Amino acid sequence: LSRATAFVGLGPVCTPIIEIADKDKRKKVQVSKDGAPETLLVFTDKDAVSGEVTLKLDPGKRVEHIGVKIEFVGQIEIFYGSLHEFTNLVRDLDAPGELTQTKSYSFDFSSVDKQYESYNGINVKLRYFLRVTVSRQYSPNIVKEMDIWVKNVQALPPPEINNSIKMEVGIEDCLHIEFEYNRSKYHLKDVVIGKIYFLLVRLKIKHMEIEIRKRESTGSGSDLYNESETITKFEIMDGAPVRGESVPVRLFLSGFDLTPTFRNINNKFSVKYYLNLVLVDEEDRRYFKQQEITLW
Fold first, then answer.
1. pTM to 2 decimals?
2. Cα separations in angstroms, 246 against 170, 175, 178
């Protein structure tokens, strides 16, 4: 089909192929793209992005062009309609001319700025990608994109100040509890350790659960839009507690799809995480208290 369409001028006779130099040594991550899984190579902010572009030409064909280039692009895509490029570096690969056979070009983005981590969210995506363009004067340009995944941008030291979280909550004369978590800032592979103390219980509590909730904020001012999702929830108590009882909490973070906390990335979006304590009574009324934690 591609040969037939190319023959009548409907499809490209030239296919760009992008190869990363050290792809076999790199870690890989699977992300969702348009509802289908895609495997991407993982880079850090210090890594060079280099390799080879091959323009594969159908036998016996020729392509006139007005230049070949490769770009390294960092882009924030907000799903309700706007694109924001924060990085765009260009390398010219070929001057205007004519391709008469398959041709390869090396490229190197060794000092490219990858200041943010890749993110694939509910309403926003931060992506880095390579884009090869064969520019043509009278025909549509031939374009090929290849995404990469940037992770662990900064190997941050543990926070110097990392206070425990301690809070009393309740409903007057009905319920009074105190919860305590060992820290307020957690590494992505950390363990949340805490305790819930029941100081007054006059409600018939059926069970208690704890949730990790993610809140993604896009835009600002009157255009601010928040979207929340529950990453996980699990029951930490089944049955009615009594006064003076304490319930331990131990939550391993490494098993969940979490990102670091992102605060106002390029003035476009933020991602925050919360521990949400939920009590459900025998009439299925829900009482909850939310507490922000910082992930790094």
1. 0.77
2. 15, 14, 9
Percent of the chain at pLDDT > 70 equals 87
- pLDDT average, residue stretch 107-127: 87
Q: Tell me, what amino acid is at 4? A: A
The distance of Cα 95 from the centroid of its chain, to the nearest Å, equals 37
Between 70 and 11, where is the model more confident? 70
Q: Is 177 exposed, middle or buried (0-12, 13-18, 19+ CB in 10 A)?
A: buried
**Which of helix, strand or coil describes residue 24?**
helix
pLDDT band at 74 (very low <50, low <70, confident <90, very high): very high
- What is the bridge-based pairing of β-strands 97-99 and 185-186? unpaired
| Length of the chain (residues) | 296
Q: Do residues 17 and 56 touch, judged by C-beta distance below 8 A?
A: yes
Name the nearest CA neighbour of 181 among 248, 279, 241: 248
Q: Residue 174: phi, psi to the nearest 5?
A: -120, -45
d(CA 268, CA 196): 37
